From TrEMBL:
Lineage: Eukaryota, Fungi, Dikarya, Ascomycota, Pezizomycotina
UniProt-listed InterPro entries: Aminoacid_DH-like_N_sf, NAD(P)-bd_dom_sf, Shikimate_DH-bd_N, Shikimate_DH_fam
Pfam families named in the record: Shikimate_dh_N (PF08501)
UniProt-recorded name of the protein: Quinate/shikimate 5-dehydrogenase/glutamyl-tRNA reductase
GO biological process: chorismate biosynthetic process; shikimate metabolic process
Gene source species: Penicillium patulum
Gene3D superfamilies on file: Leucine Dehydrogenase, chain A, domain 1, NAD(P)-binding Rossmann-like Domain
Annotated signal sequence range: none
PANTHER family registered for this protein in UniProt: BIFUNCTIONAL 3-DEHYDROQUINATE DEHYDRATASE_SHIKIMATE DEHYDROGENASE, CHLOROPLASTIC, SHIKIMATE DEHYDROGENASE
GO molecular function terms noted in the UniProt entry: shikimate 3-dehydrogenase (NADP+) activity
Domain Shikimate dehydrogenase substrate binding N-terminal: 28-107
Superkingdom field: Eukaryota
Record-linked SUPFAM superfamilies: Aminoacid dehydrogenase-like, N-terminal domain, NAD(P)-binding Rossmann-fold domains
């Protein structure tokens, strides 16, 4: 519950004694979110905590609509997805350290200042979902991974969250980046040089480099599960294959879960003897972290189990949305 304790650095609780029975509302803001799995998961988690709160989708990129909703006293928090993770964060009253260093916000919660005024705090729970998914499967990973390199596949926003998690909680000495475009990696390196200069990032350009570098202990995929077609995509796949064939196996986590959590990276990692974690687990643990900030208590085990079962069933029955993951 360190997440909850740290949240109080931004103010005190806004919840009354009968908060669970109150008619509070949480909103998801983003583009193309009609088939989001967040309503399914949050309804399960609210119910597990006996909270009669409602979760709503607001498909918009309009910051004015977002800010107006925050001003409603029944709004107890929001979840923010693409393409709003950067722009909407600027409209909040404050940001946590994670949000500042990653440069993106996917969650807002409320704390009261000394005069009792509501303050909307932005944070990033994507990185916490990554951390908790790994530690649940491998409780000793925080110690085992320390002092060893890790690898992230991709160069977008999800890659930022993965890099932060590997640096902050797993003590990675160096983080390799495999990506189809070097320009994206250059931009990623430049970004972290400005927000977290202690993070050491290295671009793997060829499979030959992957064959000679120290084997990473944690590998995190942040790209869609598409068949590689362009030269950069093919090289990136070759780099991943080379790494997974190395000795000294560790853990593979693929954040992509649509159209199926059983991705190429997941299957290849498992086939080569790595411990594997599907993206569905990350999404559930992202939602759990959000619930802790809103409800100010942990989710019971039955709620977690129900959410895990529900999302696995949903994605495997084709009830989910677009091909790339959106959390």
């Amino acid at each position: 519950m360190d997440l909850l304790k740290q949240s109080y650095a931004h103010g005190s609780s806004p919840l009354p004694p009968n908060a669970a029975a109150s008619q509070y509302h949480v909103y998801l803001f983003g583009g193309n979110i009609s088939k989001s799995l967040s309503p399914l998961l949050h309804s399960i988690l609210f119910r597990a905590n006996s909270a009669s709160w409602a979760f709503h989708l607001t498909e918009t990129t309009d910051g004015n609509i977002f800010r107006k909703q925050l001003d409603d006293n029944t709004c107890i928090g929001t979840t923010i997805t693409m393409p709003n993770k950067v722009s909407f964060g600027l409209l909040l009253d404050d940001l946590t350290e994670e949000a500042r260093m990653i440069g993106a916000v996917n969650t807002s919660f409320i704390r009261l200042d000394k005069s009792g005024q509501r303050r909307h705090i932005g944070t990033n729970t994507d990185c916490i979902g990554i951390r908790d998914s790994i530690l649940y499967r491998m409780p000793d990973a925080g110690t085992t991974a320390k002092g060893r390199p890790s690898m992230v596949i991709g160069g977008g926003g999800a890659a930022r969250s993965a890099i932060f998690a590997l640096w902050r909680w797993f003590g990675s000495t160096e983080i390799y980046i495999a990506n189809r475009l070097k320009a994206e990696v250059d931009a990623l390196i430049a970004f972290f040089q400005s927000t977290a200069p202690d993070i050491t990032l290295k671009y793997l350009a060829t499979a030959k480099e992957a064959a000679t570098c120290e084997t990473p202990y944690i590998v995190i995929g942040t790209i869609p599960n598409d068949i590689p077609r362009e030269a950069g995509e093919i090289t990136c796949r070759q780099i991943c294959d080379t790494i997974l064939c190395r000795k000294n196996k560790g853990v593979v986590l693929d954040m992509c879960y649509l159209p199926s959590p059983v991705t190429y990276l997941y299957t290849n990692g498992k086939g080569n003897g790595w411990a594997v974690i599907p993206g569905t687990e990350v999404l559930v643990r992202v939602c759990i972290a959000q619930q802790i900030l809103w409800l100010e208590k942990d989710v019971n085990k039955q709620g977690v189990d129900d959410a895990m079962s529900a999302i696995w069933k949903a994605v495997n029955q084709g009830e989910s949305g677009p091909k790339a993951s959106k959390i």
